[in-house]
Amino acid sequence: AQKITQTQPGMFVQEKEAVTLDCTYDTSDQSYGLFWYKQPSSGEMIFLIYQGSYDEQNATEGRYSLNFQKARKSANLVISASQLGDSAMYFCAMREGLANTGNQFYFGTGTSLTVIP
Amino acid sequence: DAGITQSPRHKVTETGTPVTLRCHQTENHRYMYWYRQDPGHGLRLIHYSYGVKDTDKGEVSDGYSVSRSKTEDFLLTLESATSSQTSVYFCAISEPGPYEKLFFGSGTQLSVL
């Protein structure tokens, strides 16, 4: 079974509007971490936001927020006020187990976001 | 940002030849990873390392080997390159901390003809 599932291969959003990128995960661990990375056309992987499995509040980083629904095992990324520079590939990832214990990180297949002027 | 360098950045090789990709970090971090990125597959783990001479296989390890003789260097070898190994290869290190995020190198575009 896939550890991380991203069901939206491509998304379009109008500039200045909000967009939600979907991510579901599969783990039986109680301790895990969820991440979102951005990959612009230049190819580098840029960390955006993190949510720990024990965090009760949704993580936020500027225009990025993570809608964490533990019971549904979903960790959707919300980008508010989209900008042209947000056009990129976005990857959801999960670290199973406690931090700093040599666990693997699993990635989804990515969502390509295009912001329309 | 973490000091992580991959070399070469681009490589074209022929089927059947061995290829070695290098990942170098200046952070002295313990855990290092090799991923490959392919359209429709996202990033898939090839091998990872817990420390010097301590490595383990990921989900797509067939045809690849790794070595880590020094903390700062993690080498990925394609023993006999095949066209299916044409891909973008990323090295990553995990930064210790409350949530241990991954930092990535710039990637190596490998083409096997």
Could you explain the architecture of this structure?
The complex is a heterodimer of chains A (117) and B (113). Chain A is an all-beta fold. Chain A has strands at 4-5, 10-14, 19-21, 24-25, 32-39, 46-52, 60-61, 64-69, 74-79, 88-96, 105-107, 111-116. In chain A, strands 2, 5, 6, 10, 11 and 12 form a 6-stranded mixed β-sheet that branches. Chain A has a 4-stranded antiparallel β-sheet with strand order 3-9-8-7, with no helix packed on it. In chain A, strands 1-4 form a two-stranded antiparallel sheet. In chain A, strand 10 (88-96) and strand 11 (105-107) form a beta hairpin. The model of chain A has no long low-confidence stretch (mean pLDDT 95). By secondary structure, chain B is mainly β. Chain B contains no helices and 11 strands. In chain B, strands 2, 4, 5, 6, 9, 10 and 11 form a 7-stranded mixed β-sheet that branches. Chain B has a 4-stranded antiparallel β-sheet with strand order 1-3-8-7, with no helix packed on it. In chain B, strand 5 (42-51) and strand 6 form a beta hairpin. Chain B is globular. The N and C termini of chain B lie far apart (35 Å). The relative contact order of chain B is 0.33. The mean pLDDT of chain B is 94. The chains are: A mainly beta (117), B mainly beta (113). Chains A and B meet through strand 6, strand 10 and strand 11 of A and strand 5, strand 9 and strand 10 of B.
